[in-house]
Design brief:
By secondary structure, the protein is of the alpha+beta class. It has 3 domains: 11-128, 2-Layer Sandwich (Beta-Lactamase), CATH 3.30.450.20; 165-235; 243-384, Heat Shock Protein 90. The chain has helices at 16-25, 44-50, 54-57, 68-84, 130-202, 208-235, 247-258, 280-298, 351-360; strands at 30-34, 39-42, 88-96, 102-113, 119-128, 243-246, 264-269, 275-278, 304-313, 316-323, 365-368, 378-384. Helix 5 runs antiparallel to helix 6, helix 7 (247-258) packs across helix 8 (280-298) and helix 8 (280-298) packs antiparallel against helix 9. The longest helix is centred in the middle third of the chain and has 73 residues, at 130-202. The radius of gyration is 42 Å and the shape is rod-shaped. Bound molecules: adenosine-5'-triphosphate (ATP) and magnesium ion. Adenosine-5'-triphosphate (ATP) binds at residues 230, 289, 293-294, 297, 323, 325, 328, 336, 341-344, 347-353, 376-377.
Length: 386
């Protein structure tokens, strides 16, 4: 290879055949357009990428092959290059091939200048970044998915941690309450016996006030006993002894124990009679606390209605206990399940927290529903179906 006029450029590099040979063996698509924006050269890679035969493209412009919006964009960039006389770099442009397939290109357009310094042609060198873009998109999506999973895990961890803290606090409070309750149970039993004896001794007595006073003692002993039972229930950390049982049976037991007074109307909608896999005694206790709350809320001023429904939801049974009471004020909703939270003068504030602990150890949950069914509060108990 010799030099031409000593400019250091090999003569053969200017030979069109030599240029075509190189251009056809380069992996990147290359094209040359004249000043009327028509293709005067395209390499092998270009025809392969777009699927248009070389002789169809030559002498034609972008408008003969590509959708108008794409051709408009290519033309604008061509005009920009001819006008500026400088290289134009397009980082990303879409193009539609002969089969309607979509490609994303990164294209560099450079001016070809003749000996007089006039720009005669535009040379385009293309990098088909379609696969790169697709890979980027996959990466972006899996990144987003990963971030979502991390967020989900963080949420679950936070919830688990809060649950642990709550359980620990409850356990301490529970054992304290349990200890105190046991201590109180003995004197209570003695008072109960003494009141009984006293009633027998004063039977037939003229003194009505004595009988009345004894009745009060007995009533109050009963109430104190209930509180002690609540405390012991709350404190007792017993593993559930699960067995298959009809949910309707547990519901009826709870209603029978707490909602039998004549003022209470119970409206039942128990749907299918489904079996749950739970510790019956623990669930009865929990449902009992919720029913008692409903009765206490709804029947404060005489006649009242309770509505109890049950429905399958996935692999759970949802029992809804609704009442016709005043509902739960928004300000106290967040505190309902805290131990010792009560708005009642005679309440202990252990009913709901105990119910929740009992239901959670069955693998279920207890929630205050966001909507009310018959005006008052609606509590939802989720239990695992058998
Ligand atoms: N059905 C309901 N309607 C309105 N408020 C309710 C209802 N159930 C519970 N609450 C509110 O939640 C509070 C806590 O209930 P929880 O059963 O834990 O304790 P309590 O009923 O006050 O006392 P106890 O220990 O005797 O059950 C109640 O004091 C009451 O303010
Ligand atoms: Mg209660």
């Amino acid at each position: 290879m010799g030099d031409d006029a000593g400019n250091g450029r090999p003569e053969s590099a200017l030979d069109p055949a030599f240029f075509e040979l190189i251009a056809d063996h380069v992996a990147h698509p290359i094209f040359v357009k004249d000043r009327s924006f028509c293709f005067v050269f395209i390499n092998e890679a270009f025809t392969k990428m777009l699927g248009f035969p070389r002789d169809q493209l030559l002498g034609k412009s972008d408008y003969d092959f590509f959708p108008k919006s794409e051709a408009d964009f290519f033309r604008a960039k061509d005009v920009e290059m001819f006008a500026s006389g400088r290289k134009v770099i397009i980082d990303e442009e879409p193009i539609t091939d002969a089969d309607g397939g979509h490609h994303v290109l990164a294209t560099t357009k450079v001016p070809l200048v003749d000996a007089t310094g006039t720009i005669t042609h535009l040379v385009g060198i293309i990098h088909d970044i379609t696969r790169l873009k697709a890979a980027e998109e996959v990466l972006r999506r899996s990144n987003a998915e990963l971030e979502e999973r991390v967020r989900e895990r963080t949420r679950a961890l936070t919830a688990a941690q809060e649950g642990l803290v709550r359980k620990e606090r409850l356990a301490v409070l529970g054992s304290l309450a349990g200890g105190v309750a046991h201590q109180i149970r003995n004197p209570l039993a003695s008072i109960k016996t003494a009141a009984h004896v006293l009633r027998d001794l004063t039977r037939g007595s003229e003194e009505a006030r004595i009988a009345e006073t004894v009745a009060i003692i007995q009533e109050e002993v009963l109430r104190a006993n209930r509180i002690v039972t609540d405390l012991i229930d709350y404190a007792r950390v017993r593993e559930p002894e699960k067995r298959r049982i009809k949910a309707a049976f547990l519901i009826e037991q709870a209603l029978g124990a707490h909602a039998t007074s004549p003022e209470v109307t119970v409206d039942r909608d128990l749907g299918e009679l489904l079996d749950v896999l739970v510790d019956p005694e623990q669930v009865q206790g929990a449902l009992g606390n919720i029913v008692r709350n409903a009765v206490e809320a709804a029947c404060a001023n005489g006649a009242c209605t309770l509505r109890v429904s049950s429905r399958r939801q996935g692999d759970m049974l949802v029992i809804r206990v609704s009442d016709s009471g005043p509902g739960v004020a928004p300000g106290i909703r967040a505190h309902l399940f805290e131990p010792l939270f009560t708005t009642k003068t005679t309440g202990l504030g252990l009913g709901l927290v105990t119910a929740r602990a009992l239901i959670e150890s069955q693998g279920g949950r207890v929630e205050l529903a966001t909507t009310s069914e018959i005006g008052g509060a609606t509590f939802e108990v989720f239990l695992p179906l058998a």
